Amino acid sequence: MILNASGCLDALTAPAVARALDAFVTKTVTLLPREGNDPTRIAETDCALLNSIGLANPGIDRFLDETLPALADLGVPVWVSVGAFAAAEYAELCARVGERDEVEALELNVSCPNVASPADATEEVVAAARRATSKRLFTKLSPAVPDVAELARAAAAAGTDGLSLVNTLRGLALDARTLRPVLATGSGGLSGPALRPVALAAVHACYAATGLPIVAMGGIETGRHALEAIAAGASAVALGTVLFRDPLAPGRVRAELAAEAAALGFADPLQAHGQAHARDRPLLPGETKIPANAAQI
Predict the structure, then answer these.
(1) pLDDT digits (tens, 9 = 90+) for 211-248
(2) What does each C-alpha distance from 171 to 73, 222, 250, 257 come to in angstroms?
(3) Which of 19, 106, 181, 251 has its CA 20 to 30 A from that of 96?
(4) Contact at 8 Å (CB) between 140 and 82?
(5) Using alpha carbons only, what angle is made at residue 257 by residues 162 and 204, rounded to the nearest 5 degrees?
(6) How confident is the model over 13-56, as pLDDT tens digits?
């Protein structure tokens, strides 16, 4: 299953790209409209992209009235990313979004690096969201904590259905001439290839800790990257920064993933699910049965 990372694709501007996905994840929406941070908001580095958008969005009222119906017309399952600054706000967002038939799942953005984040209250946020909706919940965590598996366990205990791993890390880029920060906010969220090993480690740790379905994201650019994420414990992958330079990435990665899996003897990429954890009995190449503990999305 291939999705986009929240904020990395405007489905209404690029509907053909969105239709190449198995589900579209919206940009994070908040209760009130947000203009976001001042420019400059994006900076390129040698090995990553930095952004400091600041959750710019039209607010929940306009999103539900205008954006969501337009997204539903694309014919792609819609996951809505929600962000807030208190558990009660998350609950209100989830209650309102959860009423809509167009929505398949919600992603709780509890880890945006460009705004104040309630990451230390993950369990409270997830529990409030769980009480507010029966829709599937995926909690998006940051690796910028001492123990991301501990956060994953807290989210699991509070009722999340799955995890989105990982959000960006904080990084800094300096202007070559002035030696001052490029981004108006100074630092911003780092995404792209440099984030991939960090994301892989988080997926591996959180799957071992919870066994929950995981959407892996962070520097995934090829089918091989996707296969490694599945082996670490992911049930799906999300493409982010790569979409800015390669809008055809969903189809390409899908084909590469099948080829990479087949080259290792797997009839289906999901047969490699959790392979990085299989120490007692490694999954046999060509084995046709998906392991019983393979968490599905």
Answers:
(1) 999 999 999 999 999 999 999 999 999 999 999 999 99
(2) 37, 24, 27, 30
(3) 19
(4) no
(5) 40
(6) 999 999 999 999 999 999 999 999 999 999 999 999 999 999 99
For the chain, domains (ranges, CATH) are 2-35+55-175+189-277 (3.20.20.70)
Q: How many residues does the chain have?
A: 297
**Per the confidence metrics, is the pTM higher than 0.90?**
yes
Three-state secondary-structure class, residue 252? helix
Q: Which residues contact 166 (CB under 8 A, 6 or more apart)?
A: 111, 140, 141, 142, 143, 148, 195, 198, 199, 202, 203, 217, 218
pLDDT tens sequence across 46-76: 999 999 999 999 999 999 999 999 999 999 9
User: 64 in helix, strand or coil?
Assistant: helix
Query: Of these residues, 8, 47, 94, 112, which one is catalytic?
Result: 112
Q: Is 112 a catalytic residue?
A: yes
